[in-house]
Please model this.
Amino acid sequence: MINRRKFIENLSAAGALSLIPGTLKAQPIFNEFAPEKSLPVIISTWIHGIDANAKAIEVLTCGGSVVDAVEQGVMIPEADPENRSVGLGGLPDRDGYVTLDACIMGPDGNAGSVCFLENIVHPISVARLVMEKTPHVMLSGEGALQFALENGFVEQDLLTPAAEKAWKEWLKESKYNPEANWENKPNEFHDTIGLLAVDQNGDIAGACTTSGLGYKMRGRVGDSPIIGAGLYVDNEVGGATATGMGELVIKVVGSFLVVELMRNGRSPQQACEETVTRIVNKVPENKIRQVGFIAVNKKGETGAFCLQPGFNFALYQENKNAMHDSKSYY
Ligand code: SD4
Model:
């Protein structure tokens, strides 16, 4: 009879086995750290990623940890009142309340998250405290706010005059039907920031923060604060994060799927493409909605893919911080 120890030895000799039945073959995980691209690497969603990447690299250069880098990177768009997607200045829900979702993961596999949080400019920092100071992963709504206030955060009205004006305009028709890429229209600028970093030692962290879809139902929470949907990091393999219509991402547990595909030997690009294809095959609304993924592996290789043309991302690598257009399924 095979004993438990022998069984585990046999498993590791065979390489890590797929946890996703039917689609993946067993492949060895990356068991040695051998970067193929120069590190550090920072990758983040949409144009606000440029400033976020710049901050993240500054933090790493000054000796900060990779978790400090991802947190402080995404704090830049969170604090920007002109940015209608994240933190201060985010578009409200259909009742006029700005509600925020954010999560963070570090190289030790720890994770923290807040959702449906109001009146706090930096939900990512609250998520980090949930990760570091509580036995929980996720706090929501009132409880998340209470925790933030107990830890020295200060309440602030996040609804700026410009966001309020846009909401009042929307109220005239009150039509909730987010078109693909509506987030990226110049006057409707509304995109989540997801940021992934691999530091010079190959350690990986990620952060994701958003005010969610503008004019959503009160209480709606998207993919962004859900570990595995909006963000996932496994320090042995890589990280992934998502943007776009969260409902589609949640239905395939998108970011976890990207990382599991990389664990099973796919490149970050292949993993993003296969995950978007999964959405196409499984979620009927895929034709009229936008979803985008970015990913990085431990070697510093990156990938991005989306449903509809129009998604772009910021990549810092080899001393260059530049925007790139993602390839799309359609
Ligand atoms: C959500 N995924 O709340 C977010 C929205 C988003 O670009 O990413 N917009 O569903």
